[in-house]
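Data availability excerpt. The first of two example chains:
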Amino acid sequence: MYQIRLQGHLNRKWIDWFEGLTMTLEDDGNTLLTGPVVDQAALYGYLKKVRDLGIPLLSVNSVGTGDV
């Protein structure tokens, strides 16, 4: 399970681009994407999408004890 925190609120129209992740718009104005990531290649794919959108990446964290 991973959490990817982005600066600013991501428009909900992009959630399909991050298939498999849950989008939470946080009170502090940031966006949290949470969900299972099958391997490092999949994680890199999500990070490339963040880059392509031009959104500042605040953090990436592995959380929980499930398979990552």
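And the second chain:
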Amino acid sequence: MGKAWINGAQASPGEAASAAARLLAHSRLPLITGLETDVAGVKAALGLAKLCGGVVDHRDSHGLYRAIEVTRSSGRFTATPAEMRRRADRFLIVGTEAAESAADLIGFVLGAVRDLGRPSADGAGRSIVWLGGGSSPLPGAGAAPVDVVACAADGLSDALGMIRAVLGGRPTGDGPISAEAAAAIAATLSGGAFVCVIWSVDSLDTLGIDMAAGLVADLNLATRASSISLTGGGQAYGAAQIATSVTGFPLRSRFVVAESDGGAWSHDAWANDGARLIAAGETDLVVHVSGLEGAAAPLLPAGVDAIVLMGGEMPQGAAVGFEIGVPGRDHAGVLYREEVGSFVPAEADGGGPDGAAKRSAADVLGAIADALRAQRKERAA
């Protein structure tokens, strides 16, 4: 049912759970991060944070939080890939990251025959603009014309602003793209019946995301438009969604224990930034969950105890370690899939390297929580 270690020496899962619980009991500010796991794993992490007064944040929340910041300040139009593949006749793909990191999603969206909605206003049919595009062909584009507009990665935000200026009837000169290119893109998009803007949080800074969201809003003044935002890997967006449903906040939250009312979740996107807490030395215990296939090794800060849940052998420096399975391979789970735009079940296929049964992240986190409760009960007796 999976291996466990205490200070590098193999131990039983029960002994390791008790050791992890003791570390949590004596921690001043534990950070539960990684969160590269399924829905049940995220919920178990939130439950453990509530029990020990810890902070919860995903290891890859930085790009996601740029999108969250824009959504909070000005709102965004969003759509599912399944709708856009059938309804959109004009696509603006921003940067190379979207096509490189989510080729399957791009192929899914662009590869369908449009069969919903009214005809294009200019009669030109489906067409694609790839702003800052690469030299490789877009997956799924087929016979649809693709206009690749050269633009440096650090100029994408300004280029989007230039397109918005043209749509708004404001003058613009040359910038990261020419004024003529900005006008041509604006004409292509405004001539569509339904525009879809696709971008990745890894391609744009906060200003760029705000420009992309604003462009969609501008287009909706004269036609219909929406966007698909690629939110990075590691189930970061799924973790934020689950955290919002459980706590009311999209990660970067801490459960503040209070004797008067039992406590409440406190959200501060800066103070509870997991990477900042580690860099500033404000956390004295890191619980890192890496339960996805191909997940990056955890970053273990020097001088800080770490409880690590991951597949395979433990990294050097973990005070307590647990081997866990991969959802959809070693055990069933529910994962967020960007190409669907929702959560989907993932059945175990038994395709692990050794075929051995492994515990889920939720099971291990639940065992640690049970051990912590038992230790508290013993101390109170």
